[in-house]
Every structure is written in structure tokens, then in C-alpha cells.
Amino acid sequence: MTQVFFKILLSGLLFLIGFASGFAKTPTVKVHYDVTPMVASDAPKIKIGLSFKGDRSGSTKIRLPLEFAGQSRLYQAIKNLRLTISDAELIDTDQPEIKAIKHRGGETIRLEYELIQDWTGAPEAGGASAKPGGGYRPILQPGYFHFLGSGAWVLPDLPKDSKLKVSMDWKNVKENFTLANSFGTNQTAQSFTTDVETFGSSIYVGGDYRIARKNVKGKQLLLATRGKWNFTDEECAGLIEKIVLATREFWNDFEQPYFLVTLLPIESDPQSKSIGGTGLINSFATFVTTNAALNDVVWLIAHEYFHNWNTNAFGGMKQPEQAVYWFSEGFTDYYTYRLLLRAGLIDLEGFAARYNEFLSDYYLSPVRNENNRRVVRDFFSDQAVGKLPYRRGMLLATKWDDIIRRQSNEGKSLDDAMRQILRDARQKKIKEISTDYVVSVLSQYAPYDFAGDVEKYVEKGDTIGDFGGVLGECVESFAVHSGKFELGFDFETARKSKTVAQLVEPSAAYRAGLRNGQKVLGASVYFGITNKPVELTIEENGQNRKIVYLPEAAEKISIPQFKVRENLSENEKKRCLNVL
């Protein structure tokens, strides 16, 4: 069994449920929900009533949840769907997520259904692409619930940009039963205006959750969590407060009146640690194993919160989005660590260490030189390909910030270009982020061929290099030599048949004693990481034995790295931090 000991399940990418057009474009559609949580039993569920005005033609379609963040057939969590009006008929279509209703023209449609957990057990590490759980499908457990809007709400079949006027009454909510969602906390009657797509991108929790409250310049910031952690609720909320403040100060934007972070404990192997999350409207949902330390989640929260601006406030991305992930994800990673440094949540040494991890991961990647067409095609299906735009964008942002600073004599930086993008978006000068637009903005801040860099390093996939001086005078660059990740045998065959096959000779696995045909009883693998040992339990001649080795290829490559100069004075460090 594979154990990924520190698996980061980034869903900083906002995967939103897609709604097809069933209505003509109309004014704001009013929908009302009566929501009754019933989680006190061993078979928890939520009873939901929905009402809205039907089409004047007497024929209306509704849409059930379908997919989100790699999870499919979300309609399986919708049970006992029925009409509660007379002289109307609910009809299946050739699409399981679409239902047709025949009714009197223009009458109010009323339905009821139950939301259940459509898989067994407690939520587990593994996230969107593994077995159900991890936080992306509805979770209904004795004592609490956790679900995303994309997995729970039945709606009229509308285009995704259709405006909704939502009213929601929470029924049978007893004392000490917490309610928290993207639109408010502990409110049993809610009303808000949104659109179909945004309504799907929302989080709802309730039951035995605890609420920690913070105030950021007069605006509400809340943490909703449950279970036991290695840190207190107040410690976690305080860290989130610092991240939110630093990010809002960067953008000079304090308009958001309410923001919710949910922290859901999930199960995993005791030796494994999993940290996942997804950014949503007015909120951020995290799913974390309880053995995580507070510092383990700091970068994820910072990354996802930055997405409230890049690219949510920018108006989205040109399709296919994966082609622009080098900007949306890579630049967000760049600012994640800059803002953590500026907020005092990591020091200069920790900042350099994170760069070293990224550089090692990038230079040792088996797909480092794949072009951007491969990223578009395989981003969601190949983990190594999925990392490429993060690494490329972060490294290009680092180089370009240095170029802008040098050519403007420290008068300008990449920060100024990012803030201009926000201004352009709010002044309706742009509708979406494209590579050409980003290059056009950057070119206003330095006479440099940014378009050439994009073509060379992003589109064609050449290796990004030459990092001397990019982190300021306090940080030196040097090189280390390491081999690429080489497991040494075919893992899929070993996983399926429990047998070693396609052994590489010579390899570290071979030198450690692994041989074709040996029976594999267990395996621990840090995929892509060469300095963490592979541990295999094999059966040989009726005896079990351990095989341990570092999965590093013999051929070495040069990897750029950073280190903080020794014996820096406090004034020197302060001057360097002002630049970063």
C-alpha cells in the first residue's frame, strides 16, 4: 500500500460545477430552501425543501449536483426527490442529473429531497481523486455535517451566470448546534443574492463545531472547527488573522465584510499527514489530518486566500484555464511566501528553504521540459504535470520581480503590476486573464521581453535558470548535485499483483536487494522525493524482510539553491526584508 507521507491536496484551483442552459436568460430567479439537519442518529441526513416559480410554458427542468474537484455523480447523494404539488409530474431524462417537470404554467414548483452521505465511514485523507471522502462529497456523520454547495443544492436548470435571490430557513436547530456557511454564521434565516456558479462554490457546516472569531479592521473573520488538534482554536484563528491582514494590506482592500475558514479533521494512517483545501465564496474549506501541526497549514491558507484576488477578483481566466495556471497558481505561490515573510510567519531562512524545495522539485521533475500543451492536456490526470505551472510561475515571478526592481532602480516591483491588474478588473477594462494581457501589463514596468520568456519557458518548456541575486543581497545562490527520482520498479504492477516487476538494473532498488518476482507485502513511498527512503516489505523464501533505499538515479544534475549569508546584522536583515 502506498503512503504519501505529506500529501498536499491543493484545490487552490477553483473547480466549479457547470450548469447548462435550460432557461432563457432571465432576471433574478428567486429560490427558497427549508433545510432540516437530522444528524443526531446513526443514519444522519438533511431534509431539504425547495420552491421556485416554474416556467409559464408548464415545462421546467431542474438540475441535481453533478461534479466538483474530481468527484463525479454527486447526484447519488440526493435521495427521495419528489414533488409536493398536485397535478405535476417529475420525469427522468437521458441525463441522470437533469429532471423534467410537467406542471401548470407559471405555478410555484415545490420539491422535497434528502441529502445523504453516499459512501460509508468517516472522511479520509485522499481528497478529490481518491475514494469518496476528503471533504469534497457531502459528509453526514452522527453529530455534524459538512458539504459544499456544488454537492447539495438542487436548482432550476439555469445558465451558470444566472442571478439568484436565495432565501434559506434552517429548521429544528437546537441550542448548542452550530451553523456556519459562506453567507453567515448561526443564522437560522438567511437571504442573499448570488449567481448559480457562485452558489455552488460555497461551504456549509453544522453540529458540534466550535467558532473562533476575529476582527480585521472591523470585518468579521471566523474559524469553524471540531475535534481535537495539536493546537488551540485561538492559535489557529490568530494565524489566519495575520494571513488575512497581510493579504488585504497588500491589495489595500478591506471591503470583504465576512470570511469563514472551516477546518475539518479527517482520518489517515498515523504515519501519514494530509492537508487539503479549496477556496470558495467568502470562505475557505480545509480538510486536514489531526496529526498536522499549525505550521503545516499556514502556506495552504495563505495560498488559497490570495486566490480571492488572483484570479477571482480579476474576472476568471481565458479558456482553457490550464494554459494560464502558470500565472494564477505560480504567481499565487510566489506571493504566498512573500506575504508569509512580510507577516513574520516565516523567517528569511525558512523563506530560502521553501525556494530550495521548489527548485529541487522543478529540476528533478521527470516532466520539467514538457510544453504547455501537455499541461493543458494532463494537468488533472498526472501529478507531476500538475505541479509544473506552480513551479514555472513562481520562478518566473521571482526573476521578473528582480528585473523590474533593477531596471526601475527599486522604484517599481511586481507588486505594482499585480495591483494594476486589480484596478483594470474593477474598472471593467478586462473581462478575463490571458497570457497576452499579463505580458502587456508587465511590459509597462520594464523594457524587457516578457513575451519571449513566456514562449521559451512556459509554452516550449525550456528550463528556467540563472537565479543569481534574485532574492536580494542577503541571500546567496549555489548549486547541489542530485539524481532524479527513480523508484527502480513498476509500482502499478506491484500494487495490483503484489509482485516486483520491471526492475531497473542497476538502480538503488536493485542494489538494496530487490529482485523481479519477489512478493510485495507493503510499501511506503514519498513519490518524487529523493531524500526520503522507500521502505518495502517483501516475502522471500517464506520469510518477511525489509528493503530500504533512497530512490535516486545514478546520473546527477546541477540544482540551484539559496542560503542566507552568515553573520548578517539586524540592520542588514531588515534592509533585505524591505526588498522582499
From TrEMBL:
It comes from the Bacteria. Residues 298-369 form the Peptidase M61 catalytic domain. Transmembrane segments: none annotated. InterPro entries: Peptidase_M4/M1_CTD_sf, Peptidase_M61_catalytic. It holds the Pfam family Peptidase_M61. This is Peptidase M61 catalytic domain-containing protein. It comes from uncultured Pyrinomonadaceae bacterium.
